[in-house]
Amino acid sequence: MYKSFIRPLLFKFDPEKVHYFTFSFLKKIFKIPGVKSFLRKKFQLEDPALEREVFGLKFKNPVGLAAGFDKDAKLYKELSGLGFGFIEVGTVTPKPQPGNEKKRLFRLKQDEAIINRMGFNNGGVEEMVERLKKNKDVLIGGNIGKNKITPNADAVEDYKICFDALYDYVNYFVVNVSSPNTPNLRELQDKEPLTRLLKTLQEMNEQRPLHKPILLKIAPDLIDEQLLDIIDIVKETRIAGVIATNTTISREGLKSDSKNEMGGLSGKPLKNRSTEVIRFLSEKSGKAFPIIGVGGIHSADDAIEKLKAGASLVQLYTGFIYEGPALIREINKKVLESNL
């Protein structure tokens, strides 16, 4: 029903407007008596064999929602009800910011992809905290970034503010220095500034009674030498793991009219490169740390491919938009059949 009726209808309208409409719609229908139970039965698949313990946390299944969809933690309860094992909120910044000028979100239907140049539009970390205070049982990752107006020299302070504010309300943290849509942000992926940033957050973490896993989200555009640096940085800073990968600035092989729009590309064209990065990190590190695989997962087989390449968990974003919530159950069913 989703791909034959709902998606064609939604895809007739501006993608950012559809995003907000979908949020409002899901909020409303989950309040209708019986709907929550119906959707849970339709999309959730519960089985002890799906449970995963990764970086000290217990996930009810290995399929999560990637950051960028629920930027302000407005819909994590409802999204969890569609079968996700965990929800990553953000990217959030210390202060609210509107993001980049519209139009900033583009569907590439021929390529089953999306280009976005949203620019960390969000209501700020304090607003997110107020929503997360109401969370009871959803496993939450907090994806943190810096404000656009904050120079890279002061970026550490922005990440510290977000870490401190969210500490009691998320299960793990993700340090986002790989978005292509905040000017000069990717310069923080260089070995020296990245090591300094992660060490600072780990020092804050170690001062707390309960250490929260800190993960690093990396770009798919890193070359092998840079990926080897990432392995060294993870070891030196003792962070919990890596999310591979964020969106790409590559436009290789695209067919759609919007292919030359500025921003980060996600969806099917990213599938192979994301898997390559996962496999490289897993093999070269000797499986030294967990990896969450994200990028181009549009089918259960795509997810299995990433798990076999070395990912411990996977996340959806663009595939969720193109394939609908049934994809979550399909992946979990395939995981059970594959004995992974």
Annotated CATH homologous superfamily: Aldolase class I
The tally of helices reads: 12
Distance between the termini: 29 Å
The proportion of residues forming helix, as a percent range, comes to 25-40%
Mean pLDDT: 94
Overall 3D shape: globular
- Order of strands across the biggest sheet? 3-4-7-8-9-10-12-13
- Give the name of the CATH architecture: Alpha-Beta Barrel
Helix and strand run: HHHEEEHEEEHEHEHEHEEHEHEHH
Q: How many runs of DSSP E, i.e. beta strands?
A: 13
Please, what is the oligomeric state?
A: single chain
Tally of discrete structural domains? 1
What's the CATH topology name? TIM Barrel
How much beta, percentage-wise?
A: 15-25%
* Rg: 19 Å
Which stretches are poorly predicted, pLDDT < 50 over at least 5 residues?
none
Helix vs. strand class: alpha/beta
What top-tier CATH class fits best?
Alpha Beta
Pathway: Pyrimidine metabolism; UMP biosynthesis via de novo pathway; orotate from (S)-dihydroorotate (quinone route): step 1/1
Main location: membrane
Protein name: Dihydroorotate dehydrogenase (quinone)
Keywords: Cell membrane, Flavoprotein, FMN, Membrane, Oxidoreductase, Pyrimidine biosynthesis
